[in-house]
Amino acid sequence: MSTPDPTGLAPGAMLGILGGGQLARMIALAAADLGIRAHIFAPEADSPAFDVAARHTIGDYEDEAALARFADAVDVVTYEFENVPAATASFLAARTPLHPGARALAVTQDRLSEKSFVAGLGLEVAPFAQVDSLADLERAVAELGRPSILKTRRFGYDGKGQVKIAPESDLAEAYEVIGHFPAILEGYVDFSREVSVVAARSADGSFAAFDVCENEHRDHILAFTRIPADLGAGAAKKAIDAARRIGEALGYIGVFAVEMFVVGEGEDECVIVNEIAPRVHNSGHWTSEGAETSQFHQHVRAVCGFPLGSTGRRGTVEMENLIGDAALRWRELLAEPGAHLHLYGKRDARPGRKMGHVTRVKP
Q1: How far is 307 from 309, CA to CA, in rounded Å?
Q2: What Å distances lie between residue 36 and 11, 98, 204, 284, 303, CA to CA?
Q3: In 10 A of CB 283, how many CB atoms?
Q4: 134-143 burial, b for 16+ CB within 10 Å, e for fewer?
Q5: pLDDT digit string (tens) for 273-321?
Q6: Deepest in the core among 100, 152, 308, 360, taking most CB within 10 A?
Q7: CB 239 within 8 A of CB 275
């Protein structure tokens, strides 16, 4: 079964995954379904992905000796989060195939480079300005107005690293909140809802997108994803076309997500690109039961050079994130007809921590 395929790997190969959280766990489980073994590299000894992987390495992302041993032990490397240090990505890419590539990381790790990249493709984004000082912030607010959002350029997710600039906000205090880090100010977008496109692209340029999904956030964390999105056919096509253009421009290999705002109504309805996630994505968890191919199987297929699977939807789907103590409802959810429970193996149900999710599919 391990005979190499001229177009990629074959069952029996070893997939290296940087990061040991729930996304790595679900990628490893999907890989096992396809006869691919997973080797997880993560610094945390209690990483939940370790429980389901063939091998794991506990090491720092800057430990080149450990990274070299890891690279030698795998056939291809992927990652579960976009904040992999650039030096780590370059080090590994010089020793073994890395999918998605280092360029996708470089563009998406920095909000300014990401916004500039998307705008350069002719896709619509929120107005933005670079902020490297309080004086920059003052000029940017004068240009973009209030309300607006001040965000650190790097390491922000689930609402972290950002602050709203309201009419009454003190700019010096806002700049202090983000620690005076390099930042970007984004103008206010009067959107009606948030949607995302989860898609995959292979080395041969093959592209497959799942149906556009609609996302509901609470306290800046995704709470529910519903499919299909309440979106007109024209706007849905534009959303998927935008994802295709982004994937092609990045030379992307693997699954990625593009988060978007919906603005306007009727014939004027359109989408504005908000962020790119160069990895499997929380809003794609519905695909495990709701699509012909899950996003996790699709990612393994793409990075290993296997044919992409069908993205056909199996019905009307809802995915609910289980945040913190919500995971304690596991017995109730197991008893719910039609509910599919996924727990991530995390021991402590801290507030704001993603502990699992449940999908509900209606034919």
Answers
A1: 6
A2: 5, 16, 21, 21, 11
A3: 27
A4: eebbeebbee
A5: 999 999 999 999 999 999 999 999 999 999 999 999 999 999 999 999 9
A6: 100
A7: no
